Protein backbone atom coordinates (compact mmCIF):
# COMPACT_ATOMS: atom_id res chain seq x y z
CA UNK A 1 0.00 0.00 0.00
CA UNK A 2 1.28 3.44 -0.89
CA UNK A 3 2.17 5.61 2.06
CA UNK A 4 2.44 9.36 1.78
CA UNK A 5 3.67 11.82 4.35
CA UNK A 6 1.76 14.98 5.28
CA UNK A 7 2.66 18.21 3.57
CA UNK A 8 3.85 16.60 0.37
CA UNK A 9 2.28 18.07 -2.77
CA UNK A 10 1.28 15.54 -5.40
CA UNK A 11 -0.82 15.58 -8.56
CA UNK A 12 -4.05 15.15 -6.59
CA UNK A 13 -3.66 17.38 -3.53
CA UNK A 14 -1.81 20.51 -2.53
CA UNK A 15 -1.56 19.18 1.03
CA UNK A 16 -2.86 16.13 2.85
CA UNK A 17 -2.50 14.50 6.28
CA UNK A 18 -0.89 11.11 6.86
CA UNK A 19 -1.92 8.61 4.19
CA UNK A 20 -3.26 6.00 4.67
CA UNK A 21 -5.53 7.75 7.14
CA UNK A 22 -5.94 5.84 10.40
CA UNK A 23 -9.29 5.36 12.09
CA UNK A 24 -10.08 7.15 15.34
CA UNK A 25 -8.55 5.02 18.17
CA UNK A 26 -11.73 5.10 20.27
CA UNK A 27 -13.01 2.12 18.26
CA UNK A 28 -9.74 0.30 17.60
CA UNK A 29 -9.75 -3.40 18.38
CA UNK A 30 -8.15 -4.72 20.48
CA UNK A 31 -9.21 -1.69 22.45
CA UNK A 32 -6.45 0.45 23.90
CA UNK A 33 -8.04 2.68 26.55
CA UNK A 34 -5.08 5.01 27.04
CA UNK A 35 -4.82 5.69 23.32
CA UNK A 36 -8.58 6.29 23.16
CA UNK A 37 -8.40 8.65 26.15
CA UNK A 38 -5.53 10.61 24.57
CA UNK A 39 -7.66 11.16 21.49
CA UNK A 40 -10.71 12.24 23.50
CA UNK A 41 -8.69 14.97 25.25
CA UNK A 42 -6.71 15.92 22.14
CA UNK A 43 -6.66 19.22 20.27
CA UNK A 44 -8.31 17.50 17.30
CA UNK A 45 -11.38 16.39 19.26
CA UNK A 46 -11.81 18.01 22.67
CA UNK A 47 -10.41 21.46 21.88
CA UNK A 48 -11.55 21.75 18.27
CA UNK A 49 -14.90 19.95 18.17
CA UNK A 50 -16.29 19.93 21.71
CA UNK A 51 -15.10 22.77 23.95
CA UNK A 52 -15.62 25.72 21.53
CA UNK A 53 -19.18 24.69 20.68
CA UNK A 54 -20.02 23.76 24.29
CA UNK A 55 -18.91 27.21 25.46
CA UNK A 56 -20.85 28.84 22.65
CA UNK A 57 -24.01 26.86 23.49
CA UNK A 58 -23.81 27.81 27.17
CA UNK A 59 -23.28 31.49 26.32
CA UNK A 60 -26.18 31.42 23.86
CA UNK A 61 -28.42 29.74 26.46
CA UNK A 62 -27.52 32.15 29.24
CA UNK A 63 -27.59 35.42 27.31
CA UNK A 64 -29.62 35.10 24.10
CA UNK A 65 -32.17 32.30 24.51
CA UNK A 66 -35.75 33.52 25.21
CA UNK A 67 -37.01 32.27 28.58
CA UNK A 68 -38.84 28.95 28.36
CA UNK A 69 -41.93 30.56 29.91
CA UNK A 70 -42.13 32.82 26.87
CA UNK A 71 -41.83 29.83 24.53
CA UNK A 72 -45.10 28.26 25.68
CA UNK A 73 -46.87 30.09 22.87
CA UNK A 74 -45.60 30.26 19.30
CA UNK A 75 -45.09 33.98 18.83
CA UNK A 76 -43.34 35.73 15.97
CA UNK A 77 -41.17 37.84 18.27
CA UNK A 78 -39.12 35.17 20.01
CA UNK A 79 -39.03 32.94 16.93
CA UNK A 80 -37.67 35.78 14.77
CA UNK A 81 -35.11 36.57 17.47
CA UNK A 82 -33.85 32.96 17.42
CA UNK A 83 -33.59 33.01 13.62
CA UNK A 84 -31.63 36.30 13.65
CA UNK A 85 -29.36 34.97 16.41
CA UNK A 86 -28.59 31.82 14.43
CA UNK A 87 -28.12 33.82 11.26
CA UNK A 88 -25.61 35.99 13.09
CA UNK A 89 -23.74 32.93 14.33
CA UNK A 90 -23.60 31.47 10.83
CA UNK A 91 -22.32 34.74 9.35
CA UNK A 92 -19.76 35.06 12.15
CA UNK A 93 -18.37 31.51 11.83
CA UNK A 94 -18.75 30.68 8.12
CA UNK A 95 -18.21 34.27 7.02
CA UNK A 96 -15.23 34.73 9.29
CA UNK A 97 -13.57 31.53 8.12
CA UNK A 98 -14.24 32.42 4.49
CA UNK A 99 -12.67 35.85 4.93
CA UNK A 100 -9.67 34.40 6.77
CA UNK A 101 -8.92 31.53 4.39
CA UNK A 102 -10.33 32.55 1.01
CA UNK A 103 -10.71 36.35 0.83
CA UNK A 104 -7.74 37.69 2.77
CA UNK A 105 -5.80 34.43 2.33
CA UNK A 106 -4.30 35.04 5.76
CA UNK A 107 -2.80 31.56 5.80
CA UNK A 108 -1.90 31.43 2.12
CA UNK A 109 -2.04 27.85 0.85
CA UNK A 110 -0.56 26.33 3.99
CA UNK A 111 -2.50 23.14 4.81
CA UNK A 112 -4.93 23.75 1.94
CA UNK A 113 -6.15 20.43 0.56
CA UNK A 114 -7.13 21.36 -2.99
CA UNK A 115 -4.95 23.57 -5.17
CA UNK A 116 -8.07 24.86 -6.94
CA UNK A 117 -9.95 27.93 -5.73
CA UNK A 118 -13.69 28.22 -5.16
CA UNK A 119 -15.68 28.35 -8.40
CA UNK A 120 -16.55 31.56 -10.23
CA UNK A 121 -18.46 31.91 -13.51
CA UNK A 122 -19.64 28.32 -13.14
CA UNK A 123 -23.03 27.38 -14.62
CA UNK A 124 -23.56 24.69 -11.95
CA UNK A 125 -24.41 27.46 -9.47
CA UNK A 126 -27.57 29.46 -10.05
CA UNK A 127 -25.74 32.74 -9.41
CA UNK A 128 -22.71 31.54 -11.37
CA UNK A 129 -20.65 31.99 -8.21
CA UNK A 130 -20.05 29.18 -5.71
CA UNK A 131 -19.76 31.39 -2.64
CA UNK A 132 -22.88 33.44 -3.34
CA UNK A 133 -24.84 30.26 -4.08
CA UNK A 134 -23.63 28.64 -0.86
CA UNK A 135 -24.47 31.73 1.22
CA UNK A 136 -28.02 31.76 -0.16
CA UNK A 137 -28.79 28.13 0.73
CA UNK A 138 -27.03 28.33 4.10
CA UNK A 139 -28.74 31.50 5.30
CA UNK A 140 -32.25 30.81 4.00
CA UNK A 141 -33.17 27.13 4.18
CA UNK A 142 -30.21 26.13 6.34
CA UNK A 143 -30.59 28.65 9.16
CA UNK A 144 -34.38 28.55 8.76
CA UNK A 145 -34.75 24.80 9.35
CA UNK A 146 -32.05 24.80 12.05
CA UNK A 147 -34.08 27.49 13.84
CA UNK A 148 -37.40 25.72 13.23
CA UNK A 149 -36.10 22.58 14.95
CA UNK A 150 -34.82 24.60 17.90
CA UNK A 151 -38.19 26.36 18.14
CA UNK A 152 -40.03 23.01 18.20
CA UNK A 153 -37.74 21.73 20.95
CA UNK A 154 -38.00 24.87 23.12
CA UNK A 155 -41.78 24.92 22.62
CA UNK A 156 -41.89 21.29 23.73
CA UNK A 157 -39.72 21.90 26.80
CA UNK A 158 -41.81 24.93 27.77
CA UNK A 159 -45.04 22.93 27.60
CA UNK A 160 -43.69 19.90 29.45
CA UNK A 161 -43.99 17.54 26.49
CA UNK A 162 -40.52 16.11 27.11
CA UNK A 163 -40.48 14.58 30.59
CA UNK A 164 -36.74 13.94 30.57
CA UNK A 165 -35.45 17.37 31.64
CA UNK A 166 -31.87 17.16 32.92
CA UNK A 167 -31.07 19.57 35.75
CA UNK A 168 -27.33 20.10 35.68
CA UNK A 169 -26.71 20.33 39.44
CA UNK A 170 -28.64 17.10 40.04
CA UNK A 171 -26.62 15.11 37.51
CA UNK A 172 -23.50 17.09 36.55
CA UNK A 173 -21.66 14.05 35.15
CA UNK A 174 -24.37 13.28 32.58
CA UNK A 175 -24.81 16.98 31.85
CA UNK A 176 -21.14 17.29 30.87
CA UNK A 177 -21.05 13.86 29.23
CA UNK A 178 -23.71 14.92 26.72
CA UNK A 179 -21.22 17.31 25.14
CA UNK A 180 -19.03 14.29 24.42
CA UNK A 181 -21.86 11.98 23.39
CA UNK A 182 -23.52 14.27 20.85
CA UNK A 183 -20.62 14.23 18.34
CA UNK A 184 -20.68 10.42 18.35
CA UNK A 185 -24.46 10.30 17.95
CA UNK A 186 -24.20 12.86 15.14
CA UNK A 187 -21.58 10.73 13.40
CA UNK A 188 -23.86 7.67 13.37
CA UNK A 189 -26.91 9.70 12.33
CA UNK A 190 -24.94 11.44 9.58
CA UNK A 191 -23.73 8.18 8.10
CA UNK A 192 -27.24 6.69 7.99
CA UNK A 193 -28.96 9.72 6.48
CA UNK A 194 -26.05 10.36 4.11
CA UNK A 195 -26.37 6.86 2.65
CA UNK A 196 -30.08 7.59 2.23
CA UNK A 197 -29.30 10.87 0.46
CA UNK A 198 -27.14 8.97 -2.04
CA UNK A 199 -30.16 6.88 -3.06
CA UNK A 200 -30.45 7.96 -6.72
CA UNK A 201 -33.93 9.58 -6.65
CA UNK A 202 -33.14 11.52 -3.47
CA UNK A 203 -29.67 12.40 -4.72
CA UNK A 204 -31.10 13.89 -7.92
CA UNK A 205 -33.78 16.00 -6.29
CA UNK A 206 -31.85 17.09 -3.18
CA UNK A 207 -28.30 15.98 -2.38
CA UNK A 208 -26.88 16.87 -5.81
CA UNK A 209 -27.11 20.52 -4.79
CA UNK A 210 -24.58 20.00 -2.00
CA UNK A 211 -22.32 18.02 -4.35
CA UNK A 212 -21.97 20.95 -6.71
CA UNK A 213 -19.22 21.82 -4.26
CA UNK A 214 -16.36 19.67 -5.51
CA UNK A 215 -13.91 22.15 -4.04
CA UNK A 216 -15.25 23.19 -0.64
CA UNK A 217 -15.24 26.34 1.44
CA UNK A 218 -16.82 27.30 4.79
CA UNK A 219 -20.13 28.29 3.21
CA UNK A 220 -20.35 24.87 1.51
CA UNK A 221 -21.01 23.05 4.79
CA UNK A 222 -24.68 24.01 5.12
CA UNK A 223 -25.33 24.66 1.43
CA UNK A 224 -28.04 22.05 0.90
CA UNK A 225 -31.49 21.57 -0.57
CA UNK A 226 -34.31 22.12 1.98
CA UNK A 227 -35.14 18.40 1.85
CA UNK A 228 -31.59 17.63 2.89
CA UNK A 229 -31.69 20.21 5.68
CA UNK A 230 -34.84 18.57 7.04
CA UNK A 231 -33.19 15.14 7.06
CA UNK A 232 -29.68 16.18 8.10
CA UNK A 233 -30.72 18.30 11.08
CA UNK A 234 -33.33 15.83 12.37
CA UNK A 235 -30.86 14.16 14.76
CA UNK A 236 -31.61 16.87 17.32
CA UNK A 237 -34.97 15.22 18.08
CA UNK A 238 -33.18 12.58 20.15
CA UNK A 239 -33.44 15.11 22.98
CA UNK A 240 -37.22 14.73 22.97
CA UNK A 241 -36.90 11.17 24.26
CA UNK A 242 -33.70 11.07 26.33
CA UNK A 243 -32.66 12.84 29.51
CA UNK A 244 -31.06 16.12 28.43
CA UNK A 245 -31.26 19.90 28.79
CA UNK A 246 -32.17 22.64 26.29
CA UNK A 247 -28.51 23.71 26.22
CA UNK A 248 -27.72 20.34 24.67
CA UNK A 249 -30.27 21.07 21.95
CA UNK A 250 -28.44 24.32 21.22
CA UNK A 251 -25.08 22.56 21.22
CA UNK A 252 -26.42 19.82 18.93
CA UNK A 253 -27.82 22.31 16.43
CA UNK A 254 -24.69 24.43 16.44
CA UNK A 255 -22.48 21.36 16.12
CA UNK A 256 -24.36 20.22 13.01
CA UNK A 257 -24.39 23.66 11.38
CA UNK A 258 -21.44 25.74 12.53
CA UNK A 259 -19.12 22.75 12.75
CA UNK A 260 -20.15 21.89 9.18
CA UNK A 261 -18.75 25.28 8.21
CA UNK A 262 -15.43 24.56 9.92
CA UNK A 263 -15.14 21.05 8.48
CA UNK A 264 -15.66 22.40 4.95
CA UNK A 265 -13.04 25.14 5.12
CA UNK A 266 -10.81 23.30 2.63
CA UNK A 267 -7.89 23.69 5.06
CA UNK A 268 -6.72 21.19 7.65
CA UNK A 269 -6.22 23.67 10.47
CA UNK A 270 -5.66 27.23 11.62
CA UNK A 271 -1.95 27.77 12.12
CA UNK A 272 -0.07 30.05 14.48
CA UNK A 273 3.68 30.18 13.87
CA UNK A 274 3.30 27.14 11.67
CA UNK A 275 1.59 24.98 14.31
CA UNK A 276 -2.11 24.00 14.44
CA UNK A 277 -4.13 25.76 17.13
CA UNK A 278 -7.52 24.58 15.83
CA UNK A 279 -8.29 21.65 13.54
CA UNK A 280 -10.91 22.73 11.05
CA UNK A 281 -11.28 21.04 7.67
CA UNK A 282 -11.81 17.32 7.18
CA UNK A 283 -9.67 15.64 4.52
CA UNK A 284 -11.78 12.52 5.08
CA UNK A 285 -14.93 14.39 3.99
CA UNK A 286 -13.07 16.29 1.27
CA UNK A 287 -12.40 12.89 -0.33
CA UNK A 288 -16.16 12.31 -0.36
CA UNK A 289 -16.76 15.59 -2.21
CA UNK A 290 -14.25 14.60 -4.85
CA UNK A 291 -15.18 10.91 -5.25
CA UNK A 292 -18.87 10.83 -4.09
CA UNK A 293 -19.13 7.08 -3.35
CA UNK A 294 -16.99 6.81 -0.24
CA UNK A 295 -16.60 8.23 3.27
CA UNK A 296 -20.31 8.84 3.87
CA UNK A 297 -19.82 9.38 7.58
CA UNK A 298 -16.97 11.00 9.44
CA UNK A 299 -13.88 9.64 11.13
CA UNK A 300 -15.27 9.83 14.65
CA UNK A 301 -17.25 6.59 14.31
CA UNK A 302 -15.80 4.26 11.63
CA UNK A 303 -19.12 3.41 9.98
CA UNK A 304 -17.47 3.48 6.55
CA UNK A 305 -14.86 1.00 7.74
CA UNK A 306 -17.54 -1.31 9.07
CA UNK A 307 -19.73 -1.10 5.96
CA UNK A 308 -17.03 -1.16 3.28
CA UNK A 309 -17.06 2.44 2.01
CA UNK A 310 -13.85 3.64 3.70
CA UNK A 311 -11.38 5.58 1.57
CA UNK A 312 -8.09 5.98 3.43
CA UNK A 313 -6.61 8.37 0.87
CA UNK A 314 -4.52 5.86 -1.06
CA UNK A 315 -4.98 5.05 -4.77
CA UNK A 316 -5.30 1.39 -3.81
CA UNK A 317 -8.25 2.17 -1.55
CA UNK A 318 -10.07 4.09 -4.27
CA UNK A 319 -9.37 1.33 -6.83
CA UNK A 320 -10.93 -1.22 -4.44
CA UNK A 321 -14.03 0.93 -4.00
CA UNK A 322 -14.37 1.35 -7.77
CA UNK A 323 -14.20 -2.41 -8.23
CA UNK A 324 -16.91 -2.86 -5.63
CA UNK A 325 -19.16 -0.31 -7.36
CA UNK A 326 -18.58 -1.93 -10.75
CA UNK A 327 -19.44 -5.37 -9.34
CA UNK A 328 -22.60 -4.09 -7.68
CA UNK A 329 -23.72 -2.20 -10.80
CA UNK A 330 -23.20 -5.28 -12.97
CA UNK A 331 -25.07 -7.48 -10.48
CA UNK A 332 -27.97 -5.02 -10.29
CA UNK A 333 -28.18 -4.79 -14.10
CA UNK A 334 -28.30 -8.57 -14.41
CA UNK A 335 -30.94 -8.93 -11.72
CA UNK A 336 -28.66 -10.78 -9.31
CA UNK A 337 -28.10 -9.82 -5.69
CA UNK A 338 -25.02 -7.58 -5.54
CA UNK A 339 -22.06 -9.02 -3.67
CA UNK A 340 -19.82 -6.70 -1.66
Give a written overview of the molecule:
By secondary structure, the protein is mainly alpha-helical. Helices cover 53% and strands 3% of the residues. It has eleven helices and two strands. It has helices at 33-40, 46-63, 76-103, 130-158, 172-197, 200-210, 226-232, 246-263, 283-291, 303-307, 315-334, and strands spanning 269-272, 275-279. The chain has a two-stranded antiparallel sheet. A hairpin with a 2-residue loop joins strand 1 (269-272) and strand 2. The longest helix has 29 residues, at 130-158. It is globular and about 55 Å long. It starts with 32 loop residues before the first helix and ends in a 6-residue tail after the last helix.
List its salient traits:
two-stranded antiparallel sheet, 340 residues, mainly alpha
Summed up:
This protein is mainly alpha-helical.
* First-residue to last-residue Cα separation: 21 Å
Helix content: 40-55%
Poorly predicted residue ranges = none
Largest sheet composition: 2 strands, antiparallel
> Which oligomeric form is depicted?
single chain
